[in-house]
Specification:
By secondary structure, the chain is mainly beta. 14% of the residues lie in helices and 52% in strands. Strand 3 and strand 4 form a beta hairpin. It starts with a strand and ends with a helix.
């Protein structure tokens, strides 16, 4: 599907075997998490155009700044917690296969681009960021949100978005990349 001209998507509840659950429920029940996203953004001169966001913002001067969570813009992946942050550059106008995993037993968050691990951090506990810090964790596609203000709209073609209640292995991520 494609989002453009200030169109955006919101994912907050999921149906699993006929039962409605939230992302918070999934993370708290399993402890692990993987987000797999394949997209192509249009060329944007503005770095802040949002592809996907799951997090909280604060205001710094006149700018909205990711306080904690996951933010994928046309030029960068940012993952922040109160203890650490991780930033990986991206190219716009390219098809990007992005995977973000969190393994609760190792407490490691990893970022993969096109099936290859490009960054990791062991001080970013996505369970805390998503499961307890956010009141109702909601994924926004094509824009960011602070209170009731929507901003940083992007024109994006989405090919795949999958959320797993497990940390995908390196092999599973590479296999998904090669098969899609």
């Amino acid at each position: 599907f494609r989002l453009s001209n200030k169109a955006y998507g919101v994912l907050s509840n999921y149906s699993i075997n006929g039962t409605t659950v939230t992302l918070k429920d999934l993370v708290n029940s399993k402890g692990d998490l993987s987000i797999s996203l394949c997209f192509k953004s249009d060329y944007h001169t503005d770095d802040g155009r949002t592809v996907l966001v799951l997090g909280d913002y604060s205001i710094s001067g006149d700018d909205y700044v990711l306080y904690q969570g996951i933010e994928v813009t046309v030029h960068e992946v940012k993952i922040k917690s109160d203890k650490a942050s991780l930033s990986i550059p991206l190219e716009d106008s390219e098809i990007t296969n992005l995977d973000i995993t969190y393994n609760s037993s190792t407490n490691i968050t990893k970022v993969y681009i096109d099936g290859v691990m490009t960054g990791s951090a062991n001080d970013i506990d996505l369970r805390t960021v998503i499961g307890t810090s956010l009141i109702n964790p909601t994924i926004y596609l094509g824009c960011s949100k602070y209170d009731s203000t929507l901003f940083n709209y992007a024109d994006v073609q989405y090919y795949r978005l999958m959320i797993y209640s497990k940390a995908l292995t390196d092999y599973e991520i590479l296999l998904n990349f090669l098969q899609n």
